[in-house]
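Friendly challenge for the regulars: who can give me the structure tokens for this chain first? No prize, just bragging rights.
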Amino acid sequence: MEKDVVLSMSGIDKTFPGVKALSNVDFKLRKGEIHALMGENGAGKSTLIKVLTGVYELESGEIHMDGFDGPIVNHNPKEAQAHGISTVYQEVNLCPNLTVAENLFIGREPRRAGLIDWKKIRSDAASVLRNLDIDVDPDRQLSECSIAIQQMIAIARAVDQECKVLILDEPTSSLDDDEVEKLFDLMRRLRKDGVGIIFVTHFLEQVYAVCDRITVLRNGELVGEYETEKLPRLDLVAKMMGKDFNDLADIKSDHEIVIDDKTPVVIDAKGLGHKGTIRPFDLAIRKGEVIGLTGLLGSGRSELVRAIYGADKADEGELLVNGEKVKINKPLDAMKHGMAYLPEDRKKDGIIADLSVKENIIIALQAQRGMFHLMSKKEMEEAANKYIKLLQIKTASMETPIKSLSGGNQQKVIIARWLLTNPDYLILDEPTRGIDVGTKTEIQKLVLDLADEGKAVTFISSEIEEMLRTCSRMAVLRDGKKVGELSGEQLNQADIMKTIAGGESVQSEVKLDEEVAENGAAV
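First reply, four minutes later:
Bragging rights claimed.
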């Protein structure tokens, strides 16, 4: 191995039934380097990480680590840790019912006279946290900490076990801007200490903010390794997608939908509210319209649509669907009135992990029909095949468990589930979070196609550029209250941020960014 290289993978192959997940892939990580692993969903990123960490068996190829003679093989994550490789996933794999200190040393507690030395655990934990500048009480229960702090605790645990390679798999997808910057500060500190970091993310801005090098995978094959500063963003996207890719700036150009006062109103909320989550609001959504909900984290975006859909039963106001006053007590009522809802957390509230792709697609329609009108096997298969082809869902077969699919393809399955019910009104809450640029663009175009077909859509995203590309109108929320609506020429970043901030003048983009960061906001 080269002198400054801490990890070298060469000729890595991995095959699943019907799918070649990795084909002759090379990857190299240097000491004191933050290295982005990029690619669309299904490109092979997660598979490569799992082969490295022993979750998947190494079929062919070699893995070399600094400090070890000859190639290594990890049969499980514990062996990977013994070789100096630690992973922190998007969903933190710690024990929320234990304290910070207990989580740092679980499974390797210092002992005295055969008993756990709690005093030493607390003092050692305080030392570890202090050295990494993590401001949290070691005696605090982990469940009381923010997701960002929990991830930093997981990183601290890995570093204290003297890891040489730290893998961060989508660590920022649930963090606000301020928390992301704190995580980046910790990553830079570890880089300075010589730790090699593999950073898996879908946020291009974050890659260019913190990474030294980028490796791109596509369809299980290596596209190349590049120095970040020498690879323009559009070139990176082109390499990920495998084709020339011009700026995404305006995908609305082919979708000029005319919405006026004569366009039928599909959803009309009047003084609708849910105590403790969303204050009474008025919102009319017309046929063929994509209306976005924007605001700071915790502003009430998700709570607003949950009140419409009955996920949180509204306790005041009224709701009209296609001009008819209705009572939505639960989501099934909403479904029967032609509504569909893709929730923010696909793993918790969306997919049913142990069921197949086919079963996940047909389950909403079957629930809508009821237990006395079961779908035939032929109907199920035809429906699943139709949407697997329509949405280009990458899966070995319709019988594949959905948990085996990449995040972007899981999201497509959930969208297929709701399209199968042929809704009049579709709620999409963060439909592109944690998925690659290519799939993200496909979903944005799909949203506009649905609007062309006359469906009313509510679109929620933490990326303001994405909202501007897809929405014809935007409602702004602040502190659990709808505070304004923007359309036409008002649909620009400055006016949106001004409305979110409460109408204060925007002096400059720099000042605005600083104010947003101070509030821990993501739009």
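Residues 350-422 form one domain. The radius of gyration is 24 Å. Your move, everyone else.
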